[in-house]
Known about the structure:
- The complex is a heterodimer of chains A (111) and B (115).
- Chain A has no helices and ten strands.
- Chain A is mostly beta strands and 111 residues long.
- A five-stranded antiparallel β-sheet of chain A has the order 1-3-8-7-6, with no helix packed on it. In chain A, strands 2-10-9-4-5 form a five-stranded mixed β-sheet, with no helix packed on it.
- Chain A is globular, with a radius of gyration of 13 Å.
- The termini of chain A are far apart.
- Chain B has 115 residues and is mainly β.
- In chain B, strands 2, 4, 5, 6, 9, 10 and 11 form a seven-stranded mixed β-sheet that branches.
- In chain B, a hairpin with a 6-residue loop joins strand 4 and strand 5.
- Chain B is globular, with a radius of gyration of 13 Å.
- At the A-B interface, strand 4 and strand 5 of A face strand 4, strand 5 and strand 10 of B.
Amino acid sequence: ILNVEQSPQSLHVQEGDSTNFTCSFPSSNFYALHWYRWETAKSPEALFVMTLNGDEKKKGRISATLNTKEGYSYLYIKGSQPEDSATYLCAPSYGNNRLAFGKGNQVVVIP
Amino acid sequence: DTGVSQDPRHKITKRGQNVTFRCDPISEHNRLYWYRQTLGQGPEFLTYFQNEAQLEKSRLLSDRFSAERPKGSFSTLEIQRTEQGDSAMYLCASSLQGASAETQYFGPGTRLLVL
């Protein structure tokens, strides 16, 4: 069983503030790191896939970085908006097509 | 592109009954995955198909669980003799083999409650 940890598990953010959270995962045999955003009653939405050490990806106000040597990824939300309220899931893969999800970072943006 | 769809979205059943869920992947995707999320946990891998072949099964998939993808398009997941511990969100995803980093696209899930 792979140990994928996301912290903090939940956070409340004031609208307009920026925030970030962490995903740590085993670095051995790492292949790719996926981030998803999951809003209640909707499908998990693919945000980013990163494979190389030092990768940085950006989508609007959300960005992510990857460190494959030490096994962690950061997700940043700049200027949080109420529509950013969701659970953000991190899932590394190790070349066998199965994603190993963490428990998620639950974000609530307070207007 | 209509995305991945799952049916039903919710299912309540009594312990001991059989249930079947359906997943329709994105039409050109040849890979299809089933995951399960229980309360307080992240989604856990159950099984994966490439076309109609079931290539991998997790140890989580007990003998009561069976998945099929007969024509390499839609898939069904059947749970026989349901137990209360089967209560969970069942997620389906699809991907295109060979696509860059193979993003898996998820459906909205089927939430199962076993009474």
